[in-house]
Amino acid sequence: MTIKEKGYAHWDGKLEERRFNWWPITRLGISLTFKKKFFKFTFLVSLLPALIYLVGIYIAERIEDFPFIESGQADFLKTNPGYFYSYFTQGSLLFIMIAILIFSGSGLISDDLKHNALQLYFSRPIKKSEYFLGKISTIFFFIFILTLVPGIVFLLMKFLFAGNFRFFVQYPWLPLSICAYSVIIAVFLGLYTLFLSSLSTNRRYVGILIFAVYFFTDILFGIFNSIFHNQYFVLFSIRWNLKQVGAAFFQQKGHYDVPWILSLLVLTVICGLAVLVLHKRVRGVEVIK
Amino acid sequence: MNVEIKNLIFSYGKVKALDGVSIALPDGAIGLLGPNGAGKSTLIRILLGFLRPDRGEGRVLGYNIRSEQNTIRRYVGYMPEDDCFIPGMDGVTYTSYLGQLSGMPRQEAMKRAHEVLYYVGLEESRYRMLETYSSGMRQRLKLAQSIVHDPKLIFLDEPTSGLDPQGRIEILELIKDISSKKDIQILISSHILSDIEAVCSFVVILDKGRLAAQGEMDKLKEIDYSMFEMKLKGSTDSFIDRLRSLKYKIEEMEDRLLKVYMPPDRNVQEIFQLAFEEKIQIRHFVKSQTKLEDLFAKVVGVD
């Protein structure tokens, strides 16, 4: 007898009260991202910088095995906080992260808005904060794979290749810097992406926005800086603000002579605005018309 | 009583959406009726815990609508009126995902998703991407997601909208089957009165934020008024005006047929007496079977 002939049957399980209600949302976000065309290729490419820096750590520790590397070049490979700073703030990595965001984040909220899916979420025991946490964690996952994970792997490899703890004794704060800076990048890019994703119901427009806003702020800085010759216009640029903050976290000198705290403030204000807009755009109460 | 609210008041700014509504719903299928702006959606929003009432108290499945909104949503199912889905998923993954969001363990949710998709007649299409579903299939899918976690109370918002006649009959059959389980209550909000009539035994009618009527459908249809159909010959205007002045409600149908709602304090002889006085011939006079449509027309107005 088929289930249709038997009639409606009860489920004999028990509904759980989960501590991490947002986790299914994150898991779905990650799996849907991997199903997208060209994403797997882009994702593999995004790991190349980390791989190159990892090879750099190995070469730096075994420099005597590479006699063709001149001493000046070897200095560049010297594994110190500057090396980590260079990895975390390199333009190519940030560019790749933007590309990953376009794949993983552009449709996170815009698709829900387009297909009226918010009511499916909020008619279940999901709070708004859990919904956002689930969505932003999808972005965290990919950003951490490009920041936190390589950072920790670099540290471990440095320890393995060096065979001693001298590096850790010399820079005991470095693991903390890696974690903190990775979190800052992830939170900023996460909120930046969700904010833009909530502005349109078309994921393509959102993808363009993610890309355009990031580069537009950079171009704006370039234009103003060349006209007024004032370094403080660096605060207009998302990329340079992230770099300035990165320099402070890895105890390096920033490229521009502008207090890093101002850059952090700018990033914080953008995050604050993003939270406000998200709060307005995603409203559970409007799901039943 | 799974749903019980007392003196519920809610306003959107200066507009009063619900004005002192008190209802107690028994088990089974309940129809929620009312014209646009009557407060149906606001009532469902409050029962689902999206809105906090300005005044009044209520309990859904024994949980307080003010303080236990999340718990309420765990045990209720909701089938929205709008076309809604999550793109990029197939039917079974989607249904299972929504089951997980309700608190089902992952594997159990997947197993149950297969069952409910079979139940609603989507067994053949459960591995198809949702973007390729027809509107009828999406309607069934919405029903499937609302029952995947085996809720104790299900809110169905226009469950048959966008369906062809056969699809509509099938969905109504499913709803009847679900509501036949003694421990599942269904609240159906619909504009299609015949759907409500086919499925529900109890009806709540809201009008302008107030409770216009509530009770067992059969009893409500019987109470305090009678309805007749008649055909007249002669100049009818004055006759109709006199009936209207005596609080009769008259609806002009096709083919010169009149539907007359007689107030409870009147009697049939009075109609014949007036016709005699107005020199009108009554050619056809039948006591009409009262339908939900008539009840609705009576409590919220013929127009």
Any overview of this molecule?
The complex is a heterodimer of chains A (289) and B (303). Chain A is 71% helix and 0% strand. By secondary structure, chain A is mostly helical. Chain A has one domain. The longest helix of chain A has 26 residues, at 203-228. Chain A is globular and about 80 Å long. Chain A starts with a helix and ends in an 8-residue tail after the last helix. Chain B has 303 residues and is α/β, with parallel strands linked by helices. Chain B folds into two domains: 3-217, Rossmann fold; 224-300, Alpha-Beta Plaits, CATH 3.30.70.100. In chain B, 36% of the residues lie in helices and 28% in strands. Chain B contains eleven helices and 14 strands. In chain B, the strands form three sheets. Chain B has a six-stranded mixed β-sheet, sandwiched between helices. Chain B has a four-stranded antiparallel β-sheet with strand order 2-1-4-5, covered by helices on one side. A four-stranded antiparallel β-sheet of chain B has the order 12-13-11-14, with helices on one face. In chain B, α3 crosses α4. The longest helix of chain B has 16 residues, at 165-180. Classes of the chains: A mainly alpha (289), B alpha/beta (303). The interface between A and B is large, with 40 and 49 residues.
pLDDT < 50 runs, ≥5 residues of chain A? none
Beta-strand segment tally of chain B: 14
Mind summarizing the main beta sheet of chain A?
none
Structural class of chain B: alpha/beta
Percent of residues in β-strands of chain A:
under 5%
Q: Which geometry of chain B do the CA atoms define?
A: elongated
Strand content of chain B: 25-35%
The secondary structure category of chain A is mainly alpha
**Mean pLDDT reading of chain A:** 89
CATH architecture of the largest domain in chain B: 3-Layer(aba) Sandwich
Largest sheet of chain B: 6 strands, mixed
Amino-to-carboxy terminus distance of chain A: 40 Å
Q: Please state the overall shape of chain A, judged from the principal axes of the Cα atoms.
A: globular
Helix fraction bin of chain A: over 70%
CATH class of the largest domain in chain B, named Alpha Beta
Provide the residue-averaged pLDDT of chain B. Answer: 87
